[in-house]
Every structure is written in C-alpha cells, then in structure tokens.
Write a structure and sequence with these properties.
two-stranded antiparallel ribbon, 2 strands, ABC transporter involved in vitamin B12 uptake, BtuC
Length: about 350
C-alpha cells in the first residue's frame, strides 16, 4: 500500500462506501458466490481424504487464525513481533490446564484462552508503546525466547507439567449431529467454525475506520496523531486483539494435537508465523490462509523430496516464493485478477 492512498479526512469521517482494503469496495456478488463455493468445498473435503490429512487441514486453519492476528499487528499496524509464539503457547496452555486440572469442556476453553491472551497482549503492548521498529522486534523476541523456560519453571510445574507437558483427551463428536463424524472430522469442523467467525470479525474491523486508522499509524504516525487518532490506544488494543487471535489458535491447535509441551513453542514457531504472513501477503486477510497452507504443508513436501536436507529444500521453496511473488501469494493473485479484468 502506498501512503498516498491514505487521505486525512478518511480517518475522522466515514467513507462513502465500505472497504475491505484501503480504496477497495466491499464484497460484491461475485466474491460472495466465490466464498460460498469455497465454504462448500471446505465442508466436503474431510469426507474425501484420510484422517491424517484432515488433521493437517485442522492445524492449517488454526495457523490461519494466528497469522491473521499477527497480520493485524504487523501488516496493518506496522508493529513488528518476533514473539507471537508466546501467545500461541499461552492460549494452548490455558486450554490444556482448564481441561486437565479443572475439567472444563473443550469448547469453553477457547474463548477463555482468547480472553487471557487479550489481557496479556494488551499489558505487553503498553510498555511496548515506547519501542518501535527493531527495538520492538527485539522485545518480542525476548518474550518468545523466554516463554518455553517460563513454562518449565518449578513454580508452574504443577499446572504446566514442566518439561513433560500436558496430555489432552481428544473430544468426541456430539451425539446430536445428523452425521456420524470421526474425532478428526469433528475437530476440523469445530476449528473451521471458529476460523469463519474470526475472519469475519477481522474483516469487519479492518475494512472501515479502524483499518484506516491502523494503516495511518503504520504509514504516517505523526499525521495520524495530528488528525485525532489515539495512536497509543490503537496500538495497545491492536496488540491485545492480535494476541487474542493467536491465543485462540493455540488453544485449537493444542486440542487438535492432544498435547501441550514447552518445546512445542520454541522461538522457531514465532519465526514460522513471520514467514507465514510474508509468504501469504502482508496487510491481506486472505493472505493468512495462504501463509498457513505454506507453513503447514511445505515442510512436509520438503521432507518428502529430501530426507537428508529437508530444511535446505524448504529454504529453496521460500526463496522461490519471495522471488516469484514479492508481494506474497495474495498480492500475486490480486495482480493476476487485475490484469485479467483489465483485458
């Protein structure tokens, strides 16, 4: 996005028409039909593939929620985070502890995990207001590195299980369903439902005044503040909402994996999220889904190609994506669609 597309009056006054991205109209009939077809395909896929592939798609949906939260913070608001794996871990452990220690039903742990991460992200975002750019990235880096060690600390070992982690019982599909679903199929649809709700909420937040304010803070913070945008409030709340999305994703992933361990949330997970939003497309809602598919399936493909050096193959894939699609997958699709419509 170019700074020139941000007009000062658009920050303080409602736009003439709703937008999904800055300067773009809201969903038209064609896009709505396309989304409906995509939803039908998503609902049909679990019945034609094996349980392991269903599990992989469930994890991809959870990652997509986390990437959307990180994209709100980094892509739309310009705050660089290298520690979002910490909020993913907090959400996962919130769900695991509530299920294991307090016998909470699995579905009730999801909003609670989001609430805990919302508060944690907001509180972390307050002191981070004094930091920008690489300094903020370094602070979040410290959070991501410290979180696994915090979870292993003896003071929390009773709740977190220490280095051994916590085992979660995979929930069964409800009896009231008209179809007989396996555990993996049910968790897929459960995660899909949360993804649809959170993507819809994110789309509504980012397509209007809030989205314009976030982009204004990212591109011209002094001008945005001069126009009356409360930059401190927006940045802190964006950090909180981003952490909320990531925490919900962590809870869904922990329930799907049936396990939460400190070593599962190393700093490498935070880097993986950054790779996901860059490959999918910065400041793009749909890019979260493309990035999630990349980080879920490309490592497996690289491992199938070469058992000896899978990460070298992964690096080749990453370099290739960045060379061919410097604006991410969402940017490449948008460019192809624009050229097609122009013709």
């Amino acid at each position: 996005m170019k700074t020139s597309t941000m007009q000062s009056p658009a920050i303080s006054a409602p736009a003439a028409a709703p937008t999904t991205r800055i300067g773009q109209p809201a969903l038209g009939r064609g896009k709505i039909i396309g989304l409906a077809v995509l939803l039908v395909i998503a609902c049909a896929v679990p019945f034609v593939i094996g349980n392991y592939r269903v599990f992989q798609l469930t994890m991809a949906l959870a990652y997509a929620i986390a990437l959307l939260g990180l994209n709100m913070l980094t892509g739309f608001n310009g705050q660089i985070s290298l520690g979002h794996g910490a909020f993913f871990a907090i959400g996962a452990y919130t769900a695991a502890i509530l299920m294991d220690k307090a016998n909470f039903p699995y579905w009730a742990t999801i909003p609670l995990a989001g609430l805990v991460c919302l508060v944690a992200g907001f509180l972390f975002g307050l002191p981070a207001l004094r930091l920008e750019g690489l300094y903020l990235a370094l602070a979040t880096f410290a959070l991501g590195v410290a979180m696994p060690q915090i979870l292993k600390h003896k003071a929390l070992e009773h709740y977190t299980g220490g280095a051994m982690g916590l085992v979660i019982i995979k929930p069964e599909a409800p009896q009231w369903l008209p179809l007989t679903l396996s555990q993996d199929q049910w968790l897929y649809f459960f995660t899909l439902a949360w993804a649809i709700v959170l993507f819809f909420v994110g789309w509504n937040l980012l397509r209007g005044r809030i989205g314009r304010a976030l982009v204004a803070i990212r591109d011209q913070p002094i001008a945005a503040q001069a126009m009356g945008v409360n930059t401190a409030m927006y940045k802190s709340l964006t950090f909180g909402v981003s952490a909320c999305y990531t925490g919900i994703a962590g809870a869904l992933a922990a329930i799907g994996v049936q396990f939460a361990s400190p070593d599962s949330f190393s700093f490498f997970l935070s880097l993986t999220f950054v790779v996901g939003i860059v490959v999918g497309g910065l400041a793009s809602i749909s890019g979260a889904l493309y990035g999630a598919l990349f980080i879920q399936f490309i490592p497996n493909i690289a491992d199938d190609i070469s058992k000896a050096a899978p990460w070298a193959i992964y690096g080749v894939f990453l370099i290739g994506f960045m060379y061919v699609m410097p604006g991410g997958v969402a940017g490449a699709i948008r460019l192809v669609r624009h050229r097609f419509l122009k013709r």
